[in-house]
Design brief:
It is found in: Membrane. The protein is an alpha+beta fold. The chain is built from four helices and seven strands, in the order E-H-E-E-H-E-E-H-H-E-E. The strands form two sheets. Strands 2-4-5-7-6 form a five-stranded mixed beta sheet. A two-stranded antiparallel ribbon has the order 1-3. Strand 4 and strand 5 form a beta hairpin. It is globular. Bound molecules: adenosine-5'-triphosphate and magnesium ion (MG).
């Protein structure tokens, strides 16, 4: 499908914003900030899969930020890529675990993870989906400070895009 990825990302974030505003469980303690380019970026993507990826990373950002905080979401373009990043102020991921978080069923600190629910498949599925789009996904994290997930997608801008 040929879709506007800015709009798709904004839709997902709108939904999370509404969830945070309405659900008692979140106690409105999370703030989503956005830095999304105004330039319309049209890409050939599998919409359902891409939504699944955004959903999982946003869900993780909330789930692993028990104290709440700001979740910074950005979408930028370079001359041949689109870079999406999602940064939370949560518990972070220990250095030794970071290389494994995209493995199937891998969860940091099993005892703690179990109490939070989940299967440990979200990131493995996300990675598979991004690689199907010839993209890359990775994370940087500082334990106790927060985590940033990056998604890089190849993008060749066309002149026609300026007419949108
Ligand atoms: P599922 O997504 O299948 O419901 P899950 O969230 O445990 O379960 P993944 O999304 O694959 O599985 O994440 C794997 C592990 O990486 C998590 O269990 C968690 O330990 C760690 N992790 C993922 N995102 C974050 C984050 N934003 N902050 C801290 N730890 C994270
Ligand atoms: Mg998850």
């Amino acid at each position: 499908e040929y879709v506007n990825i800015n709009r798709l990302f904004n839709h997902v974030l709108d939904r999370f914003d509404m969830m945070i505003q309405s659900a008692d469980q979140f106690e409105k303690k999370y703030t989503i900030k956005r830095e999304i380019t105004n330039r319309q970026i049209w890409m050939e993507i599998d919409t359902d899969k891409m939504i699944q990826v955004f959903d999982n990373i946003m869900n993780n950002a909330l789930k692993y930020s028990p104290e709440g905080g700001v979740i910074n979401c950005s979408l930028k373009e370079t001359h041949d890529n689109v870079i999406i990043s999602i940064t939370d102020e949560g518990m972070g991921i220990p250095k030794k675990d970071l290389p494994h978080i995209f493995d199937r069923f891998y969860r940091v600190d099993k005892a703690r993870a179990r109490s939070m629910g989940g299967t440990g498949l979200g990131l493995a599925i996300s990675k598979e989906a991004i690689e199907k789009h010839n993209g890359k996904i990775w994370a940087n994290s500082i334990e106790g400070e927060g985590t940033t997930f990056y998604i890089l997608l190849p993008y060749v801008p066309y002149e026609e895009d300026d007419w949108e």
